[in-house]
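Q: What structure does this chain adopt?
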Amino acid sequence: MTCTHCDAVEQRGRFCVGCGKRLPPSPLPARRARLAPQYLRDDDTQPVLRFNVTPRTPLERQSDALV
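A:
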C-alpha cells in the first residue's frame, strides 16, 4: 500500500514512513489471533515449567572443606 499524500511505499503499522501521516485502514476485516481452538482452553493444555532442583543442605550439616 502506498501513501496517498507522498507516494511512499514503506509504512510502519498504520503510519507512513515518508510523511508520518496515518494511512487509511485496510478494507479487509481485522484478523483474529487464534492460539488454540475453543475446546482446548482447559488447564491441561497450559505449559508447565518443571525444574530439577536439589535443595541445599542446612549449615548445621555442612562440613568444612579440607584444604
